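stage 2 :: seqdesign
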């Protein structure tokens, strides 16, 4: 019996190819639908709608929801009038030091296993967010947008734990706006031997007199600090030379009128030298020498000293790391918050840098428009 001839027409081949494409598209669609959940774990979240906030809290508490079919209710009057907001009974800033805090990592010894510790972290994070909500609703305060993704905060916790010296980068044009006192307290709580160093970036945008003002302020507080610029070395020197030319006549006249005699001249020269050292923008080698000198107890022959880089988005952490390394290692972007994961970078045998993602900390001193002008927000507003 002759073998049946198979159907090998062009039309049949096209139909089979179309079916294969539909199967592949279905599989790809399934993979893509789950991708945002995975990628969103490290997405910075500073603002949420009411619905997103509700489900985020429910997920952290481990609650499930099921749809129920209920009898419809007719609402005759859909207009609601806001109730009069009573003035806060608590005087301003009385209990803020205990409430306006960054989330803390729970003690791992309180959990028996990894799953229990994960639940402990989520519970502590939910309680932290509830305290901030109470601060706004009961205290009558208005907080800035802040980071609401627990995974981003976990990266900061790890950087603090690993670091011997924690460098807090501040925009030198407004250092107090970007300084986080509770971050410095959290570093000391982790280990009293850890040192917090304030690095005032973008110092090339300040005049010598402005740098002197901030140097005096930080010196009086007993802080470890230095001025830093990511600009080209030639441009930086030209800017400093122009500042010196503009301010030198005033300085010379003040010195001539206030200093008399050889002893006074020597004292004035010593003061001027200390002032110059405090306000000069450092080079990469000078900065590393200062940071290594802050922890003489670390034996670099046994292990390298770990320097953590923390701060708000867009204060120049990635650019600072690239200048220290002399090569582009950390991603730099015009969009605030480019770094989303902890990065460990080896400088040499003695020094290792540990870069944390830029975080927006809860604060009361400024609003969304201030953050936009300072560059720590991208201006995208989530409407509720």
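stage 2 :: out
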């Amino acid at each position: 019996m002759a073998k049946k001839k198979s159907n090998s027409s062009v039309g049949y081949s096209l139909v089979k190819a179309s079916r294969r494409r539909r199967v592949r598209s279905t599989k790809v669609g399934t993979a893509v639908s789950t991708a945002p959940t995975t990628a969103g774990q490290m997405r910075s979240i500073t603002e949420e709608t009411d619905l997103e906030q509700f489900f985020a809290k429910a997920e952290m508490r481990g609650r499930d929801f099921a749809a129920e079919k209920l009898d419809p209710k007719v609402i005759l009057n859909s207009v609601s009038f806001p109730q009069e907001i009573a003035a806060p009974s608590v005087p301003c800033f009385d209990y803020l030091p205990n409430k306006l805090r960054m989330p803390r990592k729970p003690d791992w010894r309180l959990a028996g296993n990894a799953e229990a510790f994960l639940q402990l972290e989520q519970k502590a994070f939910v309680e932290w967010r509830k305290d901030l909500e109470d601060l706004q609703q009961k205290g009558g305060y208005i907080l800035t947008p802040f980071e609401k993704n627990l995974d981003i905060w976990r990266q900061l916790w790890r950087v603090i734990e690993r670091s011997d010296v924690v460098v807090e980068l501040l925009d030198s044009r407004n250092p107090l706006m970007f300084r986080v006192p509770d971050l410095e307290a959290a570093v000391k709580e982790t280990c009293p031997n850890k040192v917090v160093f304030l690095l005032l970036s973008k110092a090339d945008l300040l005049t010598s007199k402005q740098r002197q003002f901030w140097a005096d302020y930080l010196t009086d507080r007993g802080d470890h600090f230095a001025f830093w610029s990511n600009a080209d070395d030639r441009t930086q020197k030209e800017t400093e030379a122009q500042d010196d030319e503009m301010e030198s006549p005033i300085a010379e006249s003040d010195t001539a009128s206030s200093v008399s005699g050889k002893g006074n001249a020597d004292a004035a020269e010593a003061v001027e030298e200390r002032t110059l050292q405090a306000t000069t923008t450092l080079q990469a080698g000078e900065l590393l020498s200062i940071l290594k000198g802050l922890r003489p107890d670390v034996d670099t022959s046994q292990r390298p000293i770990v320097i953590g880089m923390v701060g708000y988005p867009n204060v120049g952490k990635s650019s600072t790391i690239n200048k220290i390394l002399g090569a582009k290692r950390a991603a730099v972007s015009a969009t605030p918050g480019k770094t989303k994961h902890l990065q460990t970078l080896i400088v040499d045998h003695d020094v290792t840098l540990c870069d944390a993602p830029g975080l927006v900390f809860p604060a009361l001193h400024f609003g969304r428009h201030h953050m936009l002008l300072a560059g720590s927000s991208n201006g995208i507003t989530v409407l509720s």
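stage 3 :: structure notes
- Residues 25-40, 77-95, 248-260 have pLDDT under 50 and may be disordered.
- The longest strand covers residues 165-171.
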